[in-house]
Amino acid sequence: MPYMGTPLVPRVLQDSNIYGGGLVNGSSAAVVSYEGSVTRAAQYLEPARISKRVLQTIAPTSTQWQGFGSYQWSDYQRDMVVKAWGSAKAMASAAATSMDNIRPGEAGYQNFLNLAPACKPTKQGTAEFNNCLRIFIAANHIPYTQMFGADPENLPLLTQNFKTLRDKVEVLGAANRENQLLYLTVSSTVTDIIDGVNQCDGGVQAFVMGAVRVKEYHTNPGVYPPDNAWILNFCPPFFQLPRMEDQLDKLGAQGNPSQAQICNLDALDNAAKCILHEWTHLPWVLNTNAPGGPSDTYGYLKAASYQTAASIGPSSLQKMFTNTFGSKNADNYAWMAVSHFVMVKL
Question: pTM for the whole thing?
Answer without folding.
Answer: 0.82
